[in-house]
Design brief:
Blueprint: E1 5-7, E2 17-19, H1 22-31, E3 39-43, E4 50-58, E5 61-66, E6 79-85, H2 91-101, E7 106-111, H3 121-142, E8 149-150, E9 154-155, H4 156-160, E10 168-172, E11 188-193, H5 201-209, E12 212-215, H6 224-239
Parallel strand pairs: 1-3, 6-7, 6-11, 7-8, 7-9, 10-11, 10-12
Antiparallel strand pairs: 2-5, 3-4, 4-5
Length: 245
């Protein structure tokens, strides 16, 4: 039986007595109905994890005692940054959640010309913070102890103008000549995925000029919420930890 896992943003230490963050405490007691003494695993996103147990419950407050730190990691040897154009509705939540489960290292949300969703200012900051929470929750579920960073939102053209050395840059295009199996293996990859309707021609040109290679997954056109996840799965199967080695 897998123990409940909870992310605590504050740094943890062996033998510490900590109060669980309010959302974690609420989920542990109200949803999972964990009693005093219940075992769990806590992690702070800095690597490794701590076996722990509920020390006491005081109304809506939950206190836990930590055991020794364990050097446990479930990270892929393949470092993939998903550069995802904004998606409408709850598609971004879904994409980020599943990308974390598939081992993505970082996520860069960008606003492209065909993005239906438009965010700016405080609203953009709140949404990025929400997505960071989605990433942390996905780590709780899938066993990862290092939480991928969701970068601040920026325009795609601004992000493409930044230099990138020693990184394989790939973007999906249904009419591309090469498939992922035609590309030489790499350990550090940036994967660019367009919004609904894909990238517009000027964005494709700008991406090519900044070093992105176009690749296709097959004969079918994939939706934006499918494309990145399918590509991540193929990359992990080719070069990552889906190979079973």
């Amino acid at each position: 039986m897998n123990l409940p896992r909870f992310y605590c943003r504050e740094a943890l230490s062996p033998g510490a007595h900590v109060e669980l963050p309010e959302p974690v405490a609420r989920h542990a007691v109200r949803v999972l109905r964990l009693p005093p003494g219940a075992p769990m695993v806590l992690f702070d996103g800095r690597g490794g994890e701590y076996p722990a147990h509920i020390e006491r419950i005081e109304k809506n407050r939950v206190f836990a005692e930590l055991a020794d730190w364990r050097d446990v990691e479930r990270e892929s040897p393949l470092a993939v940054t998903l550069v995802q154009a904004l998606q409408a509705g709850d598609k971004m939540d879904f994409t980020i959640q599943k990308a974390v489960e598939l081992g993505v290292r970082d996520i860069v949300p960008v606003e492209s010309r065909r993005s239906v969703l438009k965010l700016a200012g405080e609203r953009a900051g709140k949404r990025v913070a929400h997505w960071q929470g989605v990433a942390a929750s996905a780590c709780e579920q899938c066993g990862r102890n290092q939480v991928p960073l969701v970068a601040p939102l920026e325009r795609l053209d601004h992000w493409l103008a930044k230099p990138a050395a020693g990184i394989l840059r790939l973007m999906l295009a249904p009419d591309a000549e090469n498939t992922l199996s035609d590309i030489a293996p790499a350990t550090n990859v940036q994967l660019l995925i367009g919004a609904e309707g894909g990238l517009d021609p000027q964005e494709v040109l700008a991406a090519r000029q900044s070093g992105f290679q176009a690749v296709r997954l097959g004969p079918r056109v994939l939706r934006t919420e499918t494309a990145g996840l399918a590509a991540l799965s193929v990359l992990q199967a080719l070069w990552g930890d889906f190979r079973g080695e």
